[in-house]
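Hello again,

I reread your note about wanting to compare the complex against the isolated chains. To keep things tidy I'm splitting this into two emails, and this first one only covers the full assembly. Below are the input lines as submitted, including protein chains and any nucleic acid or small-molecule components. They are followed by the predicted structure of everything together. The single-chain runs will come separately.
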Amino acid sequence: MVIEIDFNSDEALYLQLRNQIIMGIATSQYQEGDSLPSVRQLADMVGINMHTVNKAYTVLKQEGFVKVDRRRGAVIAIDVDKLQTIAELKKELRVILAKGSCKNITREEMHELIDEIYEEYGGLE
Amino acid sequence: MVIEIDFNSDEALYLQLRNQIIMGIATSQYQEGDSLPSVRQLADMVGINMHTVNKAYTVLKQEGFVKVDRRRGAVIAIDVDKLQTIAELKKELRVILAKGSCKNITREEMHELIDEIYEEYGGLE
DNA sequence: TTCGTTGTTATACTTATCTTATCACAAATG
DNA sequence: CATTTGTGATAAGATAAGTATAACAACGAA
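Full-complex prediction:
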């Protein structure tokens, strides 16, 4: 999978990595059991430090997206806690929906936006 | 409007303020033309520094939620740029939907989540 | 005018986070 | 054996966040 870093972004490098990997999992570019590149490999690929990659992996582990195997490195392993996930998503969505509402985005348009992204992701479920 | 700060949160204080004010606008607790508390007042109310409040107001101004009047302070004034707003929302939603999808949240459940929040906000449009 | 309040700017300091760097170690692979 | 793995310790620099104090012009009210 192609991972690219925007050094001009105000988003932290390790968060850019985290988000891209999560989107990679969602779009099946990474599947349960797949190994991520080693921290040193990925660091070389995108041109950043090993520890920054390690930080991204550590976050992904804490959030239940990967598990770390001594010999296989970071392996995609989703730990599903639906209730907790929903609570987290709700908190983030509240701000996003409020922002949209202020800018005259209707409820219907928001639903359309969701669908557009799902289409973008290729008919994901 | 009641504004509260969680000092234990990992979210920056000025972003907590920004988000709460945006949600306040969305829920009509603040309406177009209303004045926000002065930076010094709000700083005293929530127990933080004046400049942290000022930073929140500056961000709200840059994002088109308030305008600043010399005599009236920060006044709610929404600058609607729908295309830009949609682009921004999309970028944030992509990560959120991916996160949900990984955790077995279906498209339908995501739509339900949206509706729940709208209900929470009191039948907002 | 005088007094108080407004947003704004400037400076300085502390603290925390982010990122890089270098070194090292045990465990596993070949 | 040599190499690569994740992980840890430690140090350093850079940036962001937050506080503190001071000052200014503009405005409202006394």
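For quick reference: Chain A touches chain B through 46 residues (CB under 8 Å).

B.
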